[in-house]
């Protein structure tokens, strides 16, 4: 917003006075307090919870791919290589606890990213 | 962060009346206007890192106008005389002003609310409304003429 102001602009007539009177009649009946309180809440516990749940789910899903690898169908072409790699990893016997920890770490990391992103 | 919040609280307290007045005039309803004003301040808080300095009020006016446009995309709410009469015990002159504003075309009302009500320049209002400067000037001129006619009784002799 510039501070450019043109000489013929409206401002100092009876209408402006009436608008000013109308504005001055608006009392701060807790409006500012409510806005500031919502802004503080607005760090967004609700949004964070939604993002967090979504991202934690994403983390679990990623970790589960490794877990599901042995059950993946054999695929052809380029995918065949990926499928085989995954199955090999899965048959390597990953510790379920390790997978769970990886999923939790992934979920928490994404949640933190979401929180910082919405704070920007 | 805490300093940001304290400063934001002071800005809201300082500008709440002008932003609420603008939003009420745009929405033609005190309650809808206050909702728009509240959303505008909260949007300003969330996007504070994008504020490039200058007039905070002008910036929030722009956000409030966008919020108003966004609410118009939802279900239309019929505005009644009760909405006009109920705000802060409006009577006499203020009620007549509210009704005269409500009778303006939407573009005229927005341009008048931004320029005469919120005190933005024509250039600033054109930026806010994303409209040509000439159109804004014309809307203000026509809107002002209509208001002066409707409110002739309150004009100084």
Contiguous helical run count of chain A: 5
- Cα shape of chain B: globular
Query: What share of the residues of chain A lie within helices?
Result: over 70%
Spatial shape of chain A: rod-shaped
Q: Structural class of the secondary structure composition of chain B?
A: mainly alpha
Low-pLDDT sequence parts of chain A: 2-11
How many beta-strand runs of chain B?
0
Order of helices and strands of chain A: HHHHH
End-to-end Cα distance of chain A: 21 Å
Query: Could you state the order of secondary-structure elements of chain B as H and E?
Result: HHHHHHHH
Oligomeric state as shown: heterodimer
| Helix proportion range of chain B | over 70%
Summed up, the domain count of chain B is: 1
Largest sheet composition of chain A:
none
Q: What is the overall pLDDT average of chain A?
A: 70
Secondary structure topology:
The complex is a heterodimer of chains A (120) and B (157).
Chain A: H1 14-24, H2 31-41, H3 45-68, H4 77-91, H5 96-119
Chain B: H1 2-27, H2 30-46, H3 56-72, H4 81-86, H5 92-102, H6 106-117, H7 122-129, H8 133-150
Notes on the protein architecture:
The complex is a heterodimer of chains A (120) and B (157). Chain A has a domain at 44-119. Helix content of chain A is 71%, strand content 0%. Chain A has five helices and no strands. Chain A has helices at residues 14-24, 31-41, 45-68, 77-91, 96-119. The two termini of chain A are 21 Å apart. The model of chain A is unreliable at 2-11 (pLDDT under 50). Chain B is mostly helical and 157 residues long. Chain B has eight helices and no strands. Chain B has helices at 2-27, 30-46, 56-72, 81-86, 92-102, 106-117, 122-129, 133-150. The mean pLDDT of chain B is 85.
Brief descriptors of the model:
heterodimer, A: 120 residues, mainly alpha, B: 157 residues, Butyryl-CoA Dehydrogenase, subunit A, domain 3
Write a brief caption for the model.
The complex is a heterodimer of chains A (120) and B (157). Chain A is an all-alpha fold and 120 residues long.
